[in-house]
Amino acid sequence: MHDYLKRTATAVALLAALNTHAADAPAKPGKAAAGRKALQQRVEALEKQLIEMRQQLLAQQALLPQARPSTNAPAAGTNAVAQRLEEMESRLSNVETTAVMSEPKVMVKQVEVYVDPDGNEYDQPVEGAQPSTTYRRERVYRRQTIREEIEEALAADKSSGIEMGLTSVTTLQMARQIGGRPSEAGLGPNRARTHAYGVTAADVTFRAKSAALNTEFFVDLVGIGGASPDQEVPSAINLINNQTARLSNNQLNVREAWIRTELLNQRLGVTVGRLDLTTIFDRNSIANDESERFINGALVNNPVLGLTSNGTGVAAVFDPKGALNFKLGFQQSNDRATSLSTSLYALAEAEYIARPFSLPEGHYRIWGRSDNSSGTSRTGYGMSADQKLTPAVSLFARYGSGFVGSLPNGGDSMKFYSGGLAFRTPYTFNPLDMWGVGYAYTSLRTGINEKAVEGFYNLRMTDRMALSFLLQYVTESNTQGSYLVPGVRLKVGF
């Protein structure tokens, strides 16, 4: 209908123009008369076409009322097209208001080309040319949302700025001797008496990074205070609460203060400063964090390491981004030593990442160390492994053997092993929860031994708060004593 109206209007306008032109044309003999005659013929032909168009228009109008009832489907189709158009306009408006064009980025793209004997490259197969893989740089623009742009800017600012963190861990424990001779912790003849203990540790950390230089600076200040249940078991070989390991009670301690840089295309990391080597060596994904998992010292680190304090040193980690990496570290092992050469602690470790028997990822580490803090160079060795059996169940194990100079009476030879299981969702109440059970056995050459069994459940209350429930059972062979140590631990981080 609209097409006929347009054509009619056009014909009327043209006809009017021709009539005007014919009326205004001056009378000339010869050619002028012949031209007016030809023009008059064209006007008559147009009038005839106009009459035909009007007749067709009237015919269409006559049929329109009869066709109107059957136009529901086309009308529905027209409505669908209109709705689709509105949707596309809305999406376009949303992109224009929430997205920005990023700065041009250089991307490296792998492409396949064909090279002939003369070295010419072609995108399509050519006779005599051999396929080859090459890399090309392309400068591209990427449309991203304003939110992504802001997040990238904040991340870049964070990577080049100073990040401060605060963590508080408070542990309340009860110690009850349930067997053996009464301890010397003030229990008296009634060994069934229960004592309560509490320890709070607050960590303030400062971290500064330079992404351009691949360098990081880190400081960890720790303030710790309270009474530990270790005084309930004075003959214990390992700490009942490992929060106090290598720290002075009721004092502000500098646990770590170091600078780390990466070399050789980020394959070699070198750390220099005041170090805690247990954060680099003898790692374990299950049994290596007394703030959220096992709290008994024998289930946090291998006691054969024999580290009594953190100290000045250097550590290097060579990671070629494969299945195998190597670590080497040196540090001062005695704060009272007059020189580094008289208290040198050296440690080397190799780590292998494997998936044996079609299991998920597992980490296997072996290490050896040398320590001359006792006046004589003493050695030890050990291993640490954690293996996922399923995505929700993991197994861990440790073993160690060597002379430990930090033991009473000048030190003693020690043998140690531990193992256990850890469980994640769906075997937990919340998706981020974790619980585990572990066993540790420590024996000395003198015949004294210690056995410890511990279970924990770490309940993630929020992203920054975790509440753990702890239970230990410890036996000491030299006193024939056995102790039950339940506890609860709260960790809050900012």
Which band does the percent of strand residues land in? 35-45%
Please give the alpha-carbon distance between the first and last residues: 72 Å
Please give the domain count. Answer: 3
Mean pLDDT metric: 82
- Largest sheet features: 16 strands, antiparallel, barrel
Question: Which structural class do the helices and strands define?
Answer: alpha+beta
Uncertain runs: 21-29, 67-71, 185-190
Taken from the alpha-carbon principal axes, the silhouette is elongated
In the CATH hierarchy, the architecture of the largest domain is Beta Barrel
Count, helices:
4
Going across the biggest sheet, name each strand in turn.
Answer: 6-7-8-9-10-11-12-13-14-15-16-17-18-19-20-21
Secondary-structure element series: HHHEEEEEHEEEEEEEEEEEEEEEE
CATH homologous superfamily descriptor of the largest domain? Porin
Task: Report the helical percentage.
Answer: 10-25%
CATH fold annotation of the largest domain: Porin
The CATH class assignment of the largest domain is Mainly Beta
What does this structure look like?
With 494 residues, the protein is an alpha+beta fold. It folds into 3 domains: 1-64; 105-143, no CATH class; 160-493, Porin, CATH 2.40.160. The protein has helices spanning 2-24, 31-67, 72-98, 146-159, and strands at 99-101, 105-115, 121-122, 130-140, 143-145, 162-179, 194-210, 215-227, 251-263, 268-275, 311-318, 324-332, 344-354, 362-371, 378-388, 393-404, 412-423, 434-444, 449-462, 465-476, 481-493. Residues 21-29, 67-71 and 185-190 have low confidence and may be disordered.
